[in-house]
Amino acid sequence: MEAAGLSCLVNLPGEVLEYILCSGALTAADIGRVSSTCRRLRELCQSSGKVWKEQFRVRWPSLMKHYSPTDYVNWLEEYKVRQKAGLEARKIVASFSKRFFSEHVPCNGFSDIENLEGPEIFFEDELVCILNMEGRKALTWKYYAKKILYYLRQQKILNNLKAFLQQPDDYESYLEGAIYIDQYCNPLSDISLKDIQAQIDSIVELVCKTLRGINSRHPSLAFKAGESSMIMEIELQSQVLDAMNYVLYDQLKFKGNRMDYYNALNLYMHQVLIRRTGIPISMSLLYLTIARQLGVPLEPVNFPSHFLLRWCQGTEGATLDIFDYIYIDAFGKGKQLTVKECEYLIGQHVTAALYGVVNVKKVLQRMVGNLLSLGKREGIDQSYQLLRDSLDLYLAMYPDQVQLLLLQARLYFHLGIWPEKVLDILQHIQTLDPGQHGAVGYLVQHTLEHIERKKEEVGVEVKLRSHEKHRDVCYSIGLIMKHKRYGYNCVIYGWDPTCMMGHEWIRNMNVHSLPHGHHQPFYNVLVEDGSCRYAAQENLEYNVEPQEISHPDVGRYFSEFTGTHYIPNAELEIRYPEDLESVYETVQNIYSAKKEDVE
User: Measured between alpha carbons, how far is 61 from 198 in angstroms, rounded to an integer?
Assistant: First the structure.
């Protein structure tokens, strides 16, 4: 019967057979078995053919953009390599919780991934697959996959930025440089120069449509994509700017973000296009890119407090001064300003040098400087990610900036991460500026002490709820709680039978004013606003309407959210082995009581 069925199958036309094999009903293993049955099916399932290409596409669709339709590809071999890379990536992700639960992933912690054989895009794709797993499970896997992917992409972007900065000074791709900054600060987002350029091209098309109504013979209308032609007549340039202002500010409603000026999103070009708002430098880069594509040679001006563009009104080849330019405020709806009006804009007189044009590196320096200032203002983000990212970017451009190197060393020291890297930075500072020996010596001493303390740490501390000294602990890890006084929602990830903080913290937090003072259980909690806090038992209560806690470190401690509570991962359960049973009992009691109230 099977032989007869196979005979019928192989007698079908080749197109029909190929359609069946590519229908998606067969797995890779099925295709392997089918191809071994007879010569005709083996030929249809050849390694570079359509059948294996479809198997690869269905399994990993996001990877297809990396292949050219004209390239010869051994799809069977690609399938095997991608599958092997996925297994290796998962193996490493699974090991991270055990290796790095008690500390920040060290600088060399990613070496396993970096040393893997095979295309990096395959490893990245597997990490993305883990992040995209459905439901509220595999939280710990997602937590470490995110960290690894963040690191890998940032390293690649930083290398691209450094190569970009080696371009000659007359290389004026301001947009490309701004995209590298955007990508580095948002490595998990799908941001590419190609996609950003496509969005800008669509705006250029709208401007051309408006321009056609102003002057149907305008030379900009004949420009092809990618051309770098410039229009020399001022009147024709003015027509382009009028059309741009109409499209950007009247039709598309772009505007300067005066209401939320100090928001990092205002500096990311992909967000400027999505939200249609930004600050002077990001709005200027968008305006400049569109104008240059349409033949208007605007130039960036690093004006204090308010980035501007300048538009030359003088004769080509003549000696020009600052009064031969009109200055454009892209933040202010493309308003055209004189020198005197520029000074009114910022409320002070400035020297002629500050009206000069700046190169790409100086523009990027200002963008990163703005991010650096915002990073220093961060309050609730206790990881200081924006400050860390902006320091990396600034030091990639200016690696010998002593004060920023010192800030980076202090930041890592404050966060208690990467002590070996702190020592390397301090050694570099000492070489650059021996006069910093006081600050350097202090940090070196305390960093070495930190390293010694880590070496002296004993094994894992296990806390048993059944122990006599823990009899007053009422709540368990994984429970969703509410703070009685401040109203925030949180999840418990650790507890102490009494307050374990120092006298200064107890005094500053006014713990003695609590009815039970510091002689009561205190809980480590992850708060919905992204912070980590240490709360007294008397200030917490069960949240009878539990919800997921949106905190970046949830996956570090928990593997799953059940809808009522979090389940600790293996590493946290080792430290609190009796809490999981207690959580189940507590949740059942809460909902039994709630059900009785309803009845």
Answer: 22
- Range 278-303 burial, b when 16+ CB lie within 10 A, else e: bbbbbbbbbbbbbbbbbbbebbbbbb
63 vs 57: CA distance, rounded Å: 8
Per-residue pLDDT at 1: 40
If phi over 0 gives left and psi between -120 and 50 gives alpha, with beta otherwise, what is residue 435?
A: alpha
193-214 and 174-185 helices, crossing angle to 10° = 140
- 208-266 per-position pLDDT tens digit: 999 999 999 999 998 876 667 889 899 999 999 999 999 999 999 999 999 999 999 99
- By DSSP bridging, strand 308-312 and strand 299-301 are antiparallel
Phi/psi of residue 445, nearest 5 degrees? -60, -50
379 Cβ contact list (under 8 Å, min separation 6): none
Assign residue 544 a region (left: φ > 0; alpha: ψ between -120 and 50; beta: otherwise). alpha
**Distance from C-alpha of 443 to C-alpha of 392, rounded to nearest angstrom:** 20
3-state secondary structure at position 308 = strand
What per-residue confidence (pLDDT) applies to 135? Answer: 80
Of residues 73, 57, 71, the one with CA closest to residue 22: 57
What does the pLDDT look like over 53-105, one tens digit per residue? 999 999 999 999 999 988 899 999 999 999 999 999 999 999 988 888 877 77
Looking at the DSSP assignment, which residues form a beta bridge with residue 357? 301
Residue written as token pair 């060290």: 106
Cα(526)–Cα(520) distance, integer angstroms: 20
**Helical packing angle, 14-21 and 50-59, nearest 10°:** 20
- Residue 482 β-bridge partners: 489, 541
Distance CA 273, CA 265 (A): 11
Q: How far is CA 137 from the centre of its chain?
A: 22
Greatest distance between any 2 Cα atoms in the chain? 95
Query: What does the alpha-carbon distance between residue 374 and residue 268 come to, in Å, rounded to a whole number?
Result: 13
Q: Kindly report the length of the chain.
A: 599
pLDDT in tens, 391-430: 999 999 999 999 999 999 999 998 888 888 999 999 999 9
Distance CA 428, CA 425 (A): 5
Per residue in 544-582, pLDDT (tens digit) is 889 999 999 999 999 999 999 999 999 999 999 988 887
Q: Which two tokens stand for residue 481?
A: 């709680």
Question: Where do we find the tokens 């020009």?
Answer: 320
Q: Quickly state the pLDDT bin for 540 (edges 50, 70, 90).
A: very high
Question: Helix or strand or coil: residue 489?
Answer: strand
Contacts for 439 with CB less than 8 Å, ≥ 6 apart: 406
CA-based nearest residue to 521, from 589, 463, 584, 583? 463
Tokens of 334: 């493309």
